[in-house]
Structures are given as structure tokens and as C-alpha cells.
Design brief:
about 250 residues, single chain, Rossmann fold
């Protein structure tokens, strides 16, 4: 991931879409804090490329269960990091203005417990931006290699976040233009699966093809400004904690 996050088409496309949705949400929030006063929290921050992007929106915090991932985050210059489970976050209640959970919830045994913790640490009026892989029928050894527990539908993700307490602002599938290509590849991989250890579906492509996919998903990002896609390989959801959510005491920020 550390080597691919700044060049591989999938990472770039997701990061640009996330950046745009967060910027739009903050621009429409009446009376929102200045960027320097905001706190931004990336749960499952990986090797830190998304964290470097998120720093533009406020003071960055990150967590991951991998010590190696956190070491890479430090190499990128990120400092306020913690190693903790999403179900038991070591942060105070009502701490963060913006929270991101980017392809993280599918790794969690109890995703509802994780969502409730995200709700707890989110400030009233704060935003949660989630991305997850879509559709159980796209399950393949790629999911097994990445230790996924599940894939989602948009309605399932919407319902679970709502039960956790969030108000859904917008939800859409994305990586739509490549949906049938990915579906065919996953179906073929499942038919031919023979490896003892599962392998990821990440394939390093020639630079020109990689760039073409970035351009294609840039076009998709423009179109999703106009309407939500009805299907796709992944799902993106923007949710908000109601201003009326009751405050409660919790652990202190480190």
C-alpha cells in the first residue's frame, strides 16, 4: 500500500472522491469552524496517504491496528496516531468534526459496535465519510486475502449507520464504469481458484492504462455530482451526527 497509494488508479480515484465530498459538506455547514480549529479522524488510517490529504481539513488524528502501518504513517510525517480497535476507541466522546472510515468497516467483526463508537466520538453536527466494498456476489479471494468479513449493499450500509444514530446525507455506489469488468474478473477468478493462500486482485498496470483508469474515474466523479449511481464496485456514504445528539463524558484526547 505504501508504494502504491500515490500512483495506483483505485487509491487515487477514491482519495479524490473523498476529498471532494468532505470539502462540499464542510462548505455547506453554517457556522463551521475554521480548518485550524477542526479535528479530523481517520479510522483504519493504513499507511497514511489519505491522512496527508485530510490534513487540509483540520488537525489530523489516525488509528490503525497494524503497528507497521502506523510506522509508515510516521514516515509520512503524521504524528497524532493510536493503535486501537474501532469498537473501543481511546478518544473522548464528541471529539471530532470529521471522521473517515475508508474501506475499514468490512474488516471489523462487529461493524455495528464500530459504527456506534464512531457516533460516540463524532461531535454533534460532525460528519462521517464511509467507503466500503459493494455486493456479496463480488466476493472473491481478493476479499479473503484482505481479511474482509463482508461486502455491503447501499441499503444495508444506510440502515446500519441510521441505527447507530447518524443521519444519512448522501450515499452512492462508485467505480460504476468498471462494474461489469470487475464482475467478470471476479467470476473467472472464483472458477479458477486453486491457490493455497488467497491473493489480492491488485494488479500493477502499465502507466498508460493506469492513467486511463484515473481519467475514467475522474469522469465518474464529475457525474456523481449530478446523481447517485445505482450500482458499482464500492459504496461511498456521507452521514452526520444530529446537533441534538446528547453530550456525554468520555476519555480524554491524547
Amino acid at each position: 500500500m505504501y508504494e502504491l497509494e500515490n500512483s495506483y488508479w483505485w487509491f487515487i480515484a477514491r482519495r479524490r472522491l473523498v476529498q471532494e465530498w468532505i470539502a462540499e459538506a464542510l462548505s455547506k455547514t453554517a457556522g463551521s469552524s475554521e480548518a485550524l480549529a477542526r479535528t479530523v479522524f481517520d479510522v483504519g488510517c493504513g499507511t497514511g496517504a489519505n491522512g496527508k490529504m485530510l490534513e487540509q481539513f483540520g488537525q489530523f488524528y489516525g488509528t490503525d491496528m497494524s503497528q507497521e502501518a502506523l510506522r509508515f504513517c510516521h514516515e509520512r510525517g503524521l504524528q497524532r496516531l493510536a493503535r486501537t480497535w474501532v469498537e473501543h476507541l481511546c478518544f473522548a466522546t464528541d471529539s471530532f468534526d470529521v471522521i473517515t472510515a475508508l474501506d475499514m468497516l468490512e474488516h471489523v467483526d462487529d461493524d455495528m459496535a464500530g459504527m456506534k463508537e464512531l457516533f460516540r466520538v463524532c461531535k454533534p453536527g460532525g460528519f462521517l465519510l464511509v467507503t466500503v466494498p459493494a455486493y456479496g456476489f463480488l466476493w472473491s479471494e481478493h476479499d479473503e486475502a484482505l481479511h474482509h468479513r463482508r461486502r455491503y449493499t447501499a441499503s444495508e450500509l444506510r440502515n446500519k449507520l441510521s441505527v447507530a444514530g447518524f443521519e444519512i446525507q448522501r450515499i452512492s455506489y462508485f467505480i460504476t464504469f468498471l462494474f461489469f469488468v470487475v464482475f467478470a474478473m471476479r467470476f473467472w477468478q472464483n472458477l479458477r481458484k486453486s491457490a493455497v493462500s488467497p491473493k489480492t486482485g491488485l494488479v500493477v498496470l502499465p502507466k498508460f492504462i493506469n492513467q486511463c483508469l484515473i481519467w475514467l474515474l475522474d469522469l465518474e466523479r464529475v457525474l456523481v455530482r449530478l446523481f447517485n449511481f445505482p450500482l458499482g464496485v464500492s459504496i461511498i456514504c456521507l452521514a452526520q451526527k444530529p446537533l441534538s445528539a446528547p453530550a456525554s463524558s468520555g476519555k480524554r484526547l491524547p
